[in-house]
What does this fold into?
Amino acid sequence: MRLEGLKAGLRIEGLVPDEVFTVIAVQWHGTNALELTYKTTAGSLGQRVVFRKDESRLRVARSGSRAFDAPASDFKLAAEAQRINLAGLFDPMLAVATSDVRPLPHQIRAVYGELLPRSPLRFLLADDPGAGKTIMGGLYIKELILRGDVERCLVVAPGGLVEQWQDELFFKFGLHFDLLTNQYADANINRNVFETAPLLIARMDQLSRNERLQAELRETEWDLVIVDEAHRMGAHYFGGKLEKTKRFQLGESLGELTRHFLLMTATPHPGKEEDFQLFLTLLDRDRFAGRGKGSADTGGIMRRMIKEDLLTFDGRRLFPERIAETVPYELTALEYALYDQVTSYVREGMNRAERIGDKRKNTVGFALTVLQRRLASSPEAIYQSLVRRSKRLERKKQEVLNGTYREFQPTVDLVGLDADEFNAEQIEELEEELLDSATAAQTVAELDRELRELAELTSVAERVRALGTDRKWTELSTILRDNVLTTDVDGKPRKLIIFTEHRDTLDYLTARIGSLIGHPEAVTAIHGGVRRDERRRITEEFTKNPACRILVATDAAGEGLNLQAAHLMVNYDLPWNPNRIEQRFGRIHRIGQEHVCRLWNLVASNTREGEVFIRLLKKIDEQRRAYGGKVFDVLGEAFTDTPLRILLMQAVQYGERPEVKARMHEVIDHSVGDGLKDLLDERALASEHLTEADLAALRTAMDDARARRLQPTYVEAAFKEAFTRLGGRIVHRGHGHYEIASVPAHIRAAKSAPIAARYDRVTFDLSRIPSNAAKRADLLAPGHPLHDAVMEETIRRFGGALNSGTVLVSSKLKEPHLLVGVIEEVADATGASVARRFGYAYVDSHGTVTPAGPAPYLDCAAPDAPAAVTTARTPPWLADAEDRAITWIVSHRLPEYLADVRSRRAAELAKTRALVTSRLEGERDRLIADAVLAAGKERAGERPKESAESLNRKAVELDQRLRNRLELLDRQASMSAKPPLILTAALVLPA
It folds into this structure.
């Protein structure tokens, strides 16, 4: 066609193969070239210079924007691949249907009621331990991937949990995440390691401590970042000064480089409200800026559910009851003599450390605290500790005499220990490093005196150890005989976990229990020195092998391991951090636990710290009876003003003083009595509950999702046809299982995720994957790399049929209709997509549009006559049918869709606006008031803590932050519908 024929509104083809353009505007440049502004069938705008020599390629599109000449089989195959790729836009719970999980009501509500509706997401998921937060995180990740909203995802977790995350995401959700190990980083030394894998898991401390990795991380952008055990990213105020930990600074960086940011922890509140609000600034620094007074309003930004409130879909309690029992015992005379002498040594060492007055004071105090705890643990632990300490101090003495001693004493962050910022493995390493060497003694004379004291203590400890009358062991053996060396009513052997704090005690108990039972293989152990892959093997053995009945563990097993095969537990050593009690109990009190969980706490009642524990456990039991187990969930938060560790050391140092003892009892009564009541009342207001109405609504939502679900039969049919046409071989092996004998190389090369050359066993139906199968089948569904590669390659190979269109025949129609596949989308003024949906619709000769279901082309057949002959007689109204369809959708469907999206989003934005304004204005006004006072002091010749100029500058910065945030909120609140995007069309004729 001649260039003069190009007019606005005309549809042309030939400029790009298999594309039809609508002319928007034409601007001539001389007489032989023009600038063409056009819109593609995908809805995007473009410009191109067209010359006279291009005229031979240009022609008017034959019928509307489609030629309708593609083979019907190609069209149906590509349309089905396209529908499956876009299933996240019409299947409301696609991740549930395509993952090996059976989510519970609180998990469905979290993912589909709290997380997915918020875009961009800034949220703290704070359900109790054992509630399945990893499952919720996996569902959220997969749902966003399937909806096309996430391509790059980073999961940050403590070192002990990264392999668990990798396993769960792969085996339950079919998502292949790479692990950022040191070897992985070294292998990509000349590249930004964060650009090498779109799905990545990294260790929290690996990132927070490595400046090179941090620099590379800051150069990247992510769609979604999830942080597990996020409470470790803490910050604190010390004397009015804000102290940010390296982990907190990492959290700030992560929040700046991702669109969606999800924090997960079972212990969100560190005990101090101001520290909690600092933690929340990771999600919204404007909303929680400054040192706000009163409790933080976490509405819309945090979800917390308590174990005792979690239910199944039929309304039953999800978790069984848990009962804790204190087992007091008295040390024998010789044991007490050892206890008294070691306690005196520790007390004197603490007093000497107090007199040091330098940075070593905390280190020495920490080491002596560990020694006191090992004294309470077992004769073996204290004996071995005294021997090792003597050897280390003897070496130090020789180095001092030789002039070769170089002191290196790392300081211990006791606040961090109390705030539970260190994992169990790190604490074990720290204790082993410091226990044997940290001392207040510096001169040879001081070291000689301490070595003489240690020799006396070691002699007594050796006598106690040799005597073999260990009262604590006697109590444990009684528990074992009464509760473990029997079977349950179903005839299965009972399993029990014993927690100790020390490796020496762990080895001691493993040997004695093996002798008691008579089968050493019945006992296994986990401690911080056990490699992570070995921990998984031990856990599997303990879980699956009936002969393996006792697990002895340090707190390294209290983090991230699922041990609900047992329902009995003993705290052989009580932790000095109360958060650990819940973490340990949470290993057995988890989803899937069917038995009442019992915990025995062994306490020496005639010791100073034992008296504190007995008082504490008595108050806990009183509150448990009143509140039903919930006390364990907030126990660590009860000791806000005085950490339990401080109380116990006060007992060791000054426990003989009546006034000190009375004050300790008062603190415990207040913290665990009144304090727990206040905390539980507060949590009751902050946490969510599932009512019967909630359960009914969730059941309805699940039923609706099942009705709209992309059925496995469709996925199976589409995959088999596409895979075969692409050159692959798939063989049916019975019972819904298939073998894929060969995956063509061009399919394997289509995805960055690994795809095998063959698969022994695959299935398309989740119900065909038995949980106890020795060899699991791969679930081929959206999200699996092979499945997605086949669908994408199908669209690439046969997608031209979607652009050209085809002719189909339907027995359900009485006149010709145009079938269109349409995406509708709502975006805000920032350009971000807020909501999208996809579906098919019919357009009749009058331009009326009616919904056509998810895949109406599957019920249609190819015409008997060739498409070219049929389309020669196509009706004249087809030329502008797509335009009329868009007009009808804009007039009749989009206003309702936009109003629905806007109403859901507007309330959340309005609340955020009010909270941000209140917080930033309040902090700004406080700074201005402080600046006025500081200026007055400066005029009077005094020196304020902070200058008036600095305070005023901060106030101006806050005011600018407020204006910027309100401007952003205005843009986010301004939502509009994009023009409907027609992806494909077909002419459907009556049969």
